[in-house]
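tool=predict chain=A
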Amino acid sequence: MVEAIPNAIVLVDRERRIRLVNRKAEELFGYAREDLLGATVETLIPTRFREGHPRQVDDFFTRPETRAMGAGRDLFGRRKNGEEVPIEIGLSPIDTAEGLCTLAAIIDITERKRAQERFELVVEASPSAMIMIDAARRIRLVNRRAEEMFGYARAEFLGQPIEMLVPERYRAGHPGHVASFSSRPEARPMGAGRELFGLRKDGSEMPVEIGLTPIDAPDGHYVVASIIDITERRRSEDELRRSNAELEQFAYVASHDLQEPLRMVANYTELLAQRYAGQIDDRADKYIRYASDGARRMQRLVADLLAYSRVGSQGKPLVPVEAEQVLQAVTHALQRLLRESGGLVESDPLPRVSADEGQLHQLLQNLISNAIKFRSEAAPRVRITARPQGQRWLFQVSDNGIGIDMQYAQRVFQMFQRLHELGRYEGSGIGLAIAKRIVERHGGTIWIDSAPGQGSTVSFTLLAARAEGA
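tool=predict ok
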């Protein structure tokens, strides 16, 4: 029966003499069975540990009970050729005809040690702070980056509760978060949707991102936290946000203040054209016409720039909005354009979404107007659909127009970008840029699928409206 056990088995008496070994013990230590029987167990122990071993054997026989040997210490066995091997040992008292003996079950953990060393090398080399905690939330492993990030020496981390790195205002709730993770252990980011902060040794805080990975080890369950200090990223984002706000304000003020002088230029060039047409010469008439056309185009550009800047600077809070009602208002506003073009707008029932109603109106109006403007020889047909996609709705506005080559799929959403020569189609080329800005302000994405001569489908996502009481 002992021979069938997959671990090395060594039976030792009170005098520390080996009374029994199995085949696995022969293989592990490199001795023949007859070489071990009757020898002291210290034969299998490295020289540096032999002096204290008799006392440990005596302690076991004083309190004989099944237990792991050397809990918390690294144990090594010594092979016949002098090599050492890392091992784990389980001790059990056994009553035999010759008296009480100790049965040692020995496992070679060389491969596990190698894997652990490789793991620790990877952790140490990581550019992120890496911290491993046990089921009791105690820190068991950290890397150099964690020392640098939090300001503690490695020895100050080990054995301490992870809450030492959590700001005081979050500590009371942290054990609950750990327990929640342990109930569903899977690799995932920590605190999705929440701002996270770490606490340094000097008491200062830093914004962090944390990824959690559960690890099952022979000695228990652990969690490895990969931590990134996002202080610089947050500072850059804040700076970019301020810069964008300033640019939006500048664009709004500039475009608003340009309207009056442009209106004056346009009005007076119109008066020149009306009052002096044909009274000077053909060249003068042409120049006046150029000036008048240029002034009108500039007015349209400034008006469009003002509309673009208003998306960010004058947007209203997002509230539940019935997209179906907004579409009805849009088609009513576009009645004349639809009648003149012979166009038709069809739609499935549209959902309730979280939106700025005025901007949703502008978004749908821009997309439908574009579909009618860039029509083929056939009467324009526009179809609007929506289907759920997680917590969002995916809208699609499809038409039977002239379409575009997909190499221009990004360019059409840029400001003042045209794919056709000036004058062929009205407008400044900012309609889809405004649509993109509106969708992004609503936390969604927008894209186009198209082919020349086969129409286009503009898709965008919006957050679903929350149910009452949610």
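Confidence is low (pLDDT under 50) at residues 420-425. The CA atoms of residues 212 and 225 lie 5 Å apart.
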